Structure formats: structure tokens, C-alpha cells
Amino acid sequence: MTTIRVSLLQGDTLRQGDVSLIDDWRRDTADLLWVDIQDPVQEVIEPLLEERFGFHELAAEDTLSPNTLPKYDSFAHYDFFIFRTVDVNVSEHKSETFKIGAFLGEKFLFTAHRQMQTVDDVCNRLKGDRRMLERGPDFLLYSIVDEMVDSYFPLLETIEEAVDDLQDRIFEQADPIHLDELLHLKRDVNVLRRQALPQRELLNQISRGDARFVKREHLIYFRDVYDHMFRISETIDVDRDQMTGTMDAYLSVVANRTNETMKVLTIFSAVMLPLTLIAGIYGMNFEHMPELKWLHGYPFAIGLMVAVAVLMLGWFWRSGWITAPRKHRRHRL
What we know:
Elements: E1 3-10, E2 13-17, E3 32-38, H1 42-52, H2 57-64, E4 71-74, E5 79-89, E6 94-104, E7 108-113, H3 117-128, H4 131-134, H5 137-150, H6 152-173, H7 176-207, H8 219-282, H9 297-318
Parallel strand pairs: 3-7
Antiparallel strand pairs: 1-2, 1-3, 4-5, 5-6, 6-7
């Protein structure tokens, strides 16, 4: 269900209510307006944005579309933005993307989105600090975007801790479940990256002063958000490289374990080969074999097999092919 929250600043008085409060706002006054549309539908967007306020139909359409990437469009009386953020459940490897469309004018800000905690937080803060709107709708937009960008940091910290834990467990005892967990984490990071890179370019545009209705004195705040977004995208790339290194480490550990197993099997086969030869010779049962009727033939054959096996194992040991098992040590990449 669509919910419309309206905040109207008239002088020193901040009024908050529903859509009926829009009628008290006038363009030719110093009043400042924020209209927040939650869970918008076409039946609400078209009459309010297109017909009542004259916003372009393509901008309204982008506001409704769930797949619109971050963008900036300039119009005669307002700027239109699309911002995106993402929420990732690292434990269950489920992700959900959020999009907010913003119409920014000299004295108004319209935002449209699905349920978003960051917008709710700003709305609650505005009740106790009207200066966010008093400084201008562009500063209020900055407050919302700053909350959205900062929400990336806890996600990245959680992912980094999960990767560090995986590294420890892989070096202790590599298991296929670790590779599965690592691939899921890499997919989570890729989701973050797909949202972060276009957003970084959008914030770079705004911080350069391309947006007409962002005041010059507030550009420094958007530069700060751009700096955060740049750090986030760099951290994402570092995490992806770290995951690639962890995956290589997993494959190396598994390959080394396989090599150890193959070495044991090869040694066993090498020892068994001459024993099989001895048993084959004395098992031919020819009538005129010299040892066929020898009283000590059987213990001689067994003793010969044992002697050959011991000699070969001793030679393998001295050659370094057989070593004592090493204790696992904890490593970190």
C-alpha cells in the first residue's frame, strides 16, 4: 500500500503529515517541502508527479521501474536522480536491492521508494532537527544518500570477517563446504559491486557540480559521500582479490592433500610389485623347480618378501619420500 509522508517547513515551524499538507505549500514563498512516497504505484505516481507537479513522464516511469540503474537527468525546474543500495544477508546469502528516485528542486524534494530503513531514519531525525530541511532540500537529499552509502560498511566488515574465518578453517582442514561458502560470499560481493560502481559515478557527477539544484556550498558534503563510495568500491575490489587468493589457497591445500595420498599409494604399489613378482615365481608349480620340494622353501619366500619390503621402505625413507606427518598450523593470507 502506498504511503505518502509530507514535511513542510514554514519559517521556523516544521509540519509533518499526509498528502493533504501539500496544498499548504506555495512555490512563490520561502516554504520548503519534502514529499516521501513509500511503495509507489502507477495510480499514485501519475496524478501526483506528472499532472500536479509537471514532472516528466519518463522520470516518473524510471521511478517505478525496479531495474533502473543510478542516473542523473537535468530538467528545467528540477533535477532527477536514481540512487541504489543493497542489503545482503551474509549468513543466508540472500540479497535485496533498494532504489530511490529523487526529484530535487530549489524549494522541494520528492522521494519515491519501497520500504527503506535509511529514509525512515532521516524522517525520524527531521522531527528533532528541522535544520536538515532548513538548509535546503539538497542538504536533505545528502542526508538520505549519506545514510544509504554508510550502510555498505557493516556489510563489508561482515564479509571480511567471514572470509578471514574461512581462511583459518581451510588451512586447518579443507572441506568442500568451505569452497561452497566461499563461492556464495563471492557472489554477495559481486552484488555489492554491481550497485556500487554506477553509484560512485553518479556521486562523482554531483560532487563536480553537474547538478543544477545542489547548492555550491553543499558540494563538499557530496564530495565526502563520493569519497566514502570510492573507498567502498576499492574495498570491494580488495575483498574480491582476497577471495580469489583464498580460493587458490583452498585448491592448493586440496591438491597437496591429493599428492600426499597419491604418494602413499605409489609407495604401497612400489613395495607390492617385487613381492608380487616373488609370489608369482614361487607359485608357478613347475615339476622341476629347485625349491619345490625344499623343506624351508615357504619361510624362505616369506622372509625374502619381508626383507625386500623393509629394504625398499628404508630406501624411500632415506630418499625423503616418506616423512613424518606435520602438524597443522594456523595461517592467514
